[in-house]
Write a structure and sequence with these properties.
Elements lengths: L6 H6 L4 H11 L9 E7 L2 E7 L8 E6 L2 E6 L20 E6 L4 E9 L2 E8 L15
Subcellular location: Cytoplasm
Pfam families: HSP20
Protein name: Small heat shock protein IbpA
Length: 138
């Protein structure tokens, strides 16, 4: 029982459609876990996504952030010669990996080191959203 029918929630949960869509999209991940990645909590408001992109050049990677969605794509340039492998254990397929970002989370920077793509994120909560102390008047 891997799939759940969430349609009954649409009838009674008003304003939670985005959350339900997130749950449904999590069930429908079809990329089979490729490429492998880590999500790390660096600090209270800082995160790091590390994606194993061995075999991809920097020019073959594309990172896009739009509407609380981070999309990382890897596409190999077309090769002129076809290789004949005796054994192929290294995946060389193209990929697209999507990450849903919470409100106020922004991408700070990205770097490629030793076959690992590091994407640093930070939650920047506006001052009006932070808790503030209310003084009681006499």
């Amino acid at each position: 029982m891997r799939n759940f029918d969430l349609s009954p929630l649409y009838r009674s949960a008003i304003g939670f459609d985005r959350l339900i869509n997130l749950i449904e999209s999590g069930q429908n991940q079809s990329n089979g876990g490729y490429p492998p990645y880590n999500v790390e909590l660096v600090d209270e408001n800082k995160y790091r996504i590390t994606i194993a992109v061995a075999g991809f050049a920097q020019s073959e990677l594309d990172i896009t952030a739009h509407d609380n969605l981070l999309i990382v794509r890897g596409a190999h340039a077309e090769e002129q010669t076809e290789r004949k492998y005796l054994y192929q254990g290294i995946a060389e397929r193209n990929f697209e990996r999507k990450f849903q970002l919470a409100e106020h989370v922004v991408v700070r920077d990205a770097r490629l080191e030793n076959g690992l793509l590091y994407i640093d994120l930070e939650r920047l909560v506006p001052e009006e959203r932070k808790p503030r102390r209310i003084e009681i008047l006499n």
